[in-house]
Amino acid sequence: MSAAPVLQESSWETFVEVWNGLDLPEGWRAEIIEERIVMSPPPDQNHNLIGSRVNKALVRALPDDWEVLQTQGIALPSSSRIVVPDLLVVLRERMTPAVVLPGEDALLSVEITSKSNADTDRTTKLRAYAQAGIPLYLLIDRFAPRWPTITLFSEPDGEAYRESHSVPFGKPLDLPAPFTVTLETEAFPR
């Protein structure tokens, strides 16, 4: 598997400038993925319900100085990307007024697939989050080939995640310390 091309610094800055100046319709998001600006419409209610349930579980488990953010852009310039995970966990002290946070400041990134972006979440973002060194990536794949699954990727080595653990919807998934929470997935809509 080859790495994504890395933009020249001036091209990266131009992409970020264009991305930053976009005037998107309410609820839409834009990301820079492999030298393209990709826009996505608002997600459906099942997507949002799963996000809400995961958000509640994380908020209950985390210390007060950690934040669970929605629609927060993170920059992954080493792989020519700005992505907007469905949920992102960061330490409050690492937050800045910038529109985009550095990817290396993320502790957990959560993606919930939609039909239109499932392959991007499964491959491109998986690789980008590992390259950025984000310790945990939670992929909630409503459209997995066999059945809906939730997978926790861990131990990034700069290229890929060395560990993963998957369960089908309906089975619980434990998140490790410092989260130390069990995600109950039986109520996740498909």
Characterization of this structure:
It comes from Saccharopolyspora gregorii. InterPro entries: Nuclease_put_TT1808, Restrct_endonuc-II-like, Uma2. Residues 24-180 form the Putative restriction endonuclease domain. Helix content is 24%, strand content 33%. The protein has helices spanning 9-21, 45-61, 118-132, and strands at 29-32, 37-40, 66-69, 73-76, 81-83, 87-91, 100-102, 106-112, 136-141, 149-156, 161-168, 173-175, 181-183. Strand 9 (136-141) and strand 10 (149-156) form a beta hairpin. The chain is globular. The chain has a single domain (43-183), classed as tt1808, chain A, CATH 3.90.1570. The strands form 4 sheets. A 6-stranded mixed beta sheet has the order 3-6-8-9-10-11, sandwiched between helices. The chain has a 3-stranded mixed beta sheet with strand order 5-4-7, covered by helices on one side. It has 190 residues and is α+β, with helices and mostly antiparallel strands. The longest helix has 17 residues, at 45-61.
Instruction: Report the CATH superfamily.
Output: tt1808, chain A
- Quantity of strands, as a count: 13
Number of helices: 3
Number of folding domains?
Answer: 1
CATH class group = Alpha Beta
Major sheet details: 6 strands, mixed
What's the overall average pLDDT, rounded?
84
Which residues form runs of ≥5 with pLDDT under 50? Answer: 1-8
**CATH structural architecture:** Alpha-Beta Complex
Distance between the termini: 30 Å
Counting helices, strands and paired strands, the structural category is alpha+beta
Strand order of the largest sheet: 3-6-8-9-10-11
Query: What fold name stands as the CATH topology?
Result: tt1808, chain A
- Helix percentage: 10-25%
Strand content: 25-35%
Q: What is the H-and-E element order?
A: HEEHEEEEEEHEEEEE
Shape annotation: globular
Rg over C-alpha atoms, rounded to the nearest angstrom: 16 Å
